[in-house]
Amino acid sequence: MEVKWLEDFVALATTLNFSRAAEERHVTQSAFSRRIRQLETWLGTTLIDRATYPSRLTEAGIRFLPVATTMLQEIYDVRKSFQAEEVAAARQVTLTALHTLSFTFLPAWLSALNRRIGPLTSQVVPDSGSLEENVISLVDGRSDFLLTYQHPVVPMLLDPQEFEYRQLGSETILPVSAPAGDGTPQHVIEDGCHSVAYQKVSFFGQLVSGALADRLPEENRVHVGSMSVGLKAMAAAGWGVVWVPESLVRDEIAAGTLVETGDGGWRIEVAIRLYRARQNRRPIIDRIWDDLDGPDA
């Protein structure tokens, strides 16, 4: 059975004229007639009464016409669906992004990228809260990109021979607290201060303990979590001091619901990096990588 046989038969059933149907199908009449015969042979019955003029469908032809029409429509629908999926897959990118960056950086960056080289569709792999698990999502191919912060005290266990990165920007990580009644920090960085802390396996857990290891006072951990958004809320509720990206608390600091605590020496500067596997040569991934080297990136 060939699809063109069904298409030929539907064309003939519509025109009831071999010459006109062959013309519509852009084949010679002899080739068209041969294909109708092949269909009839495959089915084991005669579909066209050729003894009359104009030709007419036999009883079997009448019964088979809606079947052929339905089969063709289903085939066309499936093909259209597959083609749409291929188009969508060709422009889809999957990213693993630190939870904070998915709020503060990713939306605007993706929008700008889409304007330059789109259309794109994107999917974000949820941040597991563990830096190691986020790296594994890139290594095992679940993600095309890893969007993360970077600082020398937090090792990025990716072989530079197999993975490469582009630096997209920078961020300041600063300690904040809820304000006291006079607007000064309710919690200050000193021995015994209440601390809203990160899990040790998270990027920020490793960053704060590594970058400030020789300066951090003895703390009283009153809450531990992995997501900056949640820890920010705990700090705003008065639980203690937490280090968070400045972009995440800019509005709260402007509104006075959070205040920076400590002097500027407690700030930590980090880079924003995008990593990919060198062997990932999908066209859309290469286009994004090439765009990042351009003047508008």
From TrEMBL:
Name this polypeptide is given: LysR family transcriptional regulator
Similarity section: Belongs to the LysR transcriptional regulatory family.
GO molecular function, one term: DNA-binding transcription factor activity
Keyword terms of this UniProt record: DNA-binding, Transcription, Transcription regulation
UniProt superkingdom: Bacteria
InterPro entries (alphabetical): LysR_HTH_N, LysR_subst-bd, WH-like_DNA-bd_sf, WH_DNA-bd_sf
Domain HTH lysR-type intervals: 1-58
